[in-house]
Write a structure and sequence with these properties.
The complex is a heterodimer of chains A (about 375) and B (about 400). By secondary structure, chain A is of the alpha+beta class. Chain A contains 11 helices and 10 strands. A 4-stranded mixed beta sheet of chain A has the order 1-4-5-8, with helices on one face. In chain A, strands 2-3-7-6 form a 4-stranded antiparallel beta sheet, with no helix packed on it. Chain B is an alpha+beta fold. Classes of the chains: A alpha+beta (about 375), B alpha+beta (about 400).
């Protein structure tokens, strides 16, 4: 039983933190988000070349640093602290996850190009009608000779405007909501028939509505087993959930620290408002939520290597905790900042916006409670 | 970062499991199954069995009888005890007083008192709270004046009242906070005394709690004569001992393994009980959701405790973070009581304490659940109320 980080992981944390301290201040971020293209390729280049973190969870054979999900967790928490929008989650955690777990023939080349910073991936899985049911797919990939023809529409594909490739879930068989018949494809965004409608999100990212119209794919676009990829999708999404929980812990830390700091200097009734017990207890409850969130993220990270059912239970339980904490910590951070919390000029509101969006990312609190119930209490029903 | 158990850990689990199976007192097991109140000998018999094995004081330093278990082994031990529904070792001597003695006591005090605590020969009780000093413990008034006795030796003469003294009706000795300097600041004039409960002038009076049980007592002290050598640490510096004791008192308070077992019990009950729709209560969407949320919160508590344990093993004492464990641990215990009582519906109402436990009214698992619920409200009040814990975190952790 061991809850410590390796020396490499601690160094990784320090490296990322010190780079972000120099290059990712609140003002630098704000200016970059306002301008086109809405993210900073130079930061991504630094991640690849200067920091080398894009190879963190890949084996040394593949040119990576030889780490795993825990390294993703360490990095994501630091990215959360600075509200980084560059697509580590989509590219390294999700894209890398699909390539690592699927036995995909082109994985080694693709991973090398992720590590080098050339390939950037966005995950096109959500559909307008499907809410959080990953197998509810209207997008179809029909067999056409050796390859496939892709048709359909994907909703709110985070990071698609910056991506070179999309990983797309599509139905190669079965009815719209069947577990069977789900397949995964990797599609160059430049492929003929791919159109995107790009927009900013409320928490500073860029996203797209993506339409596929008779997009011709080769046989080598298929990742994982044809028609049987739902377990792979669930596994990678669980990994993305744990990474997002880690990001949330970074966001929560800043929300909590920012609130402590603000209430210590804000004076009313002749004293710092941090002296009021009702506010102190609120901040203690925020702190407890933060600590519980860190604990659950560690737990879920450890369970990623367990059986499918334990992994899924762990990820859902963590997401429930993080979802509740996101609301509690975020809303109270704004409340305790008073009117200042409502302004665009203070960082606190931007952390609140990210924490709010994290609550529904990869399934809301209610969704994951129901999933957890199915896994833990399902048999009696 | 992993939760792997080493072969040594697994061997330890096996040993712990077998030891409990072979040595847990049968008579005690039967009394527990009948739901009877336990007496002094019931508590001490298991303690003495463990002492013979050398396992009654795992957390103590080795020289006084500690086992030097790793955090993982302590975790395994608490799991195995909960799994087998053993009673716990009483905390007053082993977990609360002993760390004060081996940290602050003289060589003579260590030699005189630690063996009796370790071996389960001496029952200790706590004299902290007073009618006018609860959460504001430092305002205590029970007073000790120093005098020279007829024999030429130095004594304290103690006068006052203590309250909420848990299981004081069985106690041989008590540890007391008394005021030795009425003129200094509240925390500065307190001393820590060990008092023989058979001393003339001590009276222990029962307090009956909501559920009808006799767990706590008032203790009256009327000119009780205490030798000066029974004071631990310096005169007027007993608050240092008191604080150290409270930190230890909180560290075991999360009760994760017991709550896991409690949750299993709720699930069992809710599998038998029917919902309004006719299926198992556990399939009722509203009840099921409460169980799931509790289970998730318990997991969060478990991993927070594991993180704290891991931190402790690297040399830090139980930190002020243990206040989190106290708050969340007791909230979860109370939610478990609440869910169990809710689960049994009508049969939460019968009061069977006076009818005896073989009254055959309602399902046997319903017996005592209301009592547990009522009695369990104490957990967020004792050991420094959960509001006081928040004050501690605000001050010590958040620096407010």
């Amino acid at each position: 039983m061991d809850f410590s980080f390796t020396e490499e992981q601690s160094m990784l944390r320090d490296t990322v933190a010190s780079y972000l301290a120099d290059h990712y201040s609140f003002e630098q971020r704000r200016d970059a988000l306002k301008a086109e293209p809405g993210w900073r390729p130079a930061v991504w280049k630094a991640f690849a070349e200067e920091l080398g973190i894009l190879g963190a969870p890949f084996s040394e054979e593949l040119g990576g640093l030889g780490g795993g999900s825990t390294d993703n967790m360490v990095i994501m928490e630091e990215l959360g602290k600075s509200l980084v929008v560059e697509p580590y989650l989509g590219t390294v955690v999700i894209g890398g996850g699909f390539l690592k777990h699927s036995g995909y023939a082109g994985a080694a080349d693709m991973i090398a190009s992720i590590i080098g910073g050339e390939t950037i991936i966005a995950f096109a899985y959500a559909e307008p009608q499907a809410r959080y049911t990953w197998q509810d797919l209207k997008t179809t990939a029909k067999k056409d000779g050796a390859g496939y023809v892709l048709n359909g529409q994907k909703a709110v594909v985070i990071g698609a405007p910056y991506a070179t490739h999309l990983i797309v879930t599509a139905r190669t068989g079965g009815a719209q909501r069947d577990a069977g018949g789900v397949s995964v494809f990797i599609v160059p965004k430049s492929a003929k028939g791919v159109t995107t409608r790009d927009y900013p999100t409320v928490d500073g990212f860029r996203a797209s509505e993506v339409t596929f119209e008779n997009v011709a794919l080769g046989a080598d676009a298929l990742i994982g087993a044809e028609g049987a990829a739902l377990p792979l999708v669930e596994k990678v999404i669980d990994e993305a959930i744990v990474a997002t929980c880690a990001e949330a812990c970074g966001v929560f830390r800043r929300l909590h620290e920012g609130t402590l700091e603000y209430t210590k200097q804000r004076k009313q009734f002749g004293q710092p408002i941090s002296q009021f017990q009702v506010l102190q207890h609120r901040m203690v409850d925020m702190f407890i939520q933060l600590e519980q969130s860190i604990s659950m993220t560690y737990m879920a990270d450890i369970k990623l290597n367990d059986s499918d059912a334990e992994r899924a239970k762990g990820a859902s339980a963590a997401k429930v905790q993080i979802g509740k904490a996101a609301k509690f910590i975020g809303q109270n951070a704004i409340q305790l900042h008073g009117g200042m919390g409502m302004t665009d000029e203070m960082a606190i509101g931007h952390y609140f916006k990210r924490s709010t969006m994290i609550e529904s990312a990869f399934g809301s609190t209610d969704h994951h409670l129901a999933r957890y119930e199915g896994l833990s209490l399902g048999k009696v029903a | 970062m992993d939760l792997d158990f080493s072969p040594e850990d697994n061997a330890f689990r096996e040993e712990a499991r077998n030891f409990i199976a072979q040595n847990y007192p049968q008579e005690l097991r039967e009394k527990q199954n009948r739901g009877e109140d336990l007496g002094r000998e019931d508590y001490l018999s298991w303690h003495r069995t463990l002492a013979k094995k050398g396992w009654s004081t795992p957390s103590w330093p080795k020289e006084f009888g500690g086992t030097e278990w790793t955090p993982t082994q302590k975790y395994i031990w608490s799991e195995e005890q909960a799994r087998a529904d053993t009673i716990g070792i009483l905390p007053f001597g082993v977990a609360m007083l002993a760390p004060v003695i081996y940290t602050f006591g003289t060589q003579e005090q260590k030699e005189k008192f630690l063996p009796g605590i370790r071996d389960g020969q001496v029952w200790w009780c706590q004299g902290y709270s007073e009618p006018g000093a609860g959460s504001d413990l430092a305002s205590l008034k029970c007073k000790a004046e120093r005098v020279t006795g007829d024999d030429g030796k130095e004594y304290y003469i103690v006068n006052g009242q203590k309250t909420w003294t848990t299981l004081g009706q069985h106690a041989d000795w008590g540890f007391f906070l008394v005021r030795t300097d009425p003129n200094s600041k509240p925390q500065a004039g307190i001393s820590f005394l060990l008092i023989d409960m058979k001393s003339p002038g001590i009276e222990v009076r029962r307090i009956t709690t909501l559920e009808g049980g006799h767990e706590v007592n008032d203790v009256f002290l009327d000119n009780v004569k205490v030798p000066v050598e029974n004071r631990v640490f310096h005169e007027n510096q007993g608050w240092t001992c008191a604080k150290a004791l409270l930190a230890h008192e909180r560290s075991g308070i999360a009760g994760v393994a017991r709550s896991k077992r409690g949750l299993e019990r709720v699930r069992e009950i809710a599998t038998t009980e029917r919902s309004d729709a006719g299926g198992p209560l556990l399939a009722d969407p509203f009840f099921k959701r409460k169980v799931a949320e509790l289970e998730i919160d318990l997991t969060a508590l478990e991993y927070t405790e594991l993180r704290t344990l891991a931190g402790e093993s690297s040399g830090k004492g139980p930190g002020t973070e243990s206040s989190i464990l106290k708050i969340k641990g007791t909230e979860i215990q109370q939610r478990l009581h609440e869910l169990a009582l809710e689960a049994v519906g009508h049969y939460g109402a019968p009061y069977l304490r006076d009818l005896g436990h073989n009254a055959n009214i309602g399902p046997s698992y319903a017996d005592g659940l209301a009592g547990d619920y009522f009695n369990g409200r104490k957990t967020s009040i004792y050991g420094g109320s959960n509001e006081i814990q928040r004050n501690i975190i605000a001050k010590m952790v958040l620096g407010l």
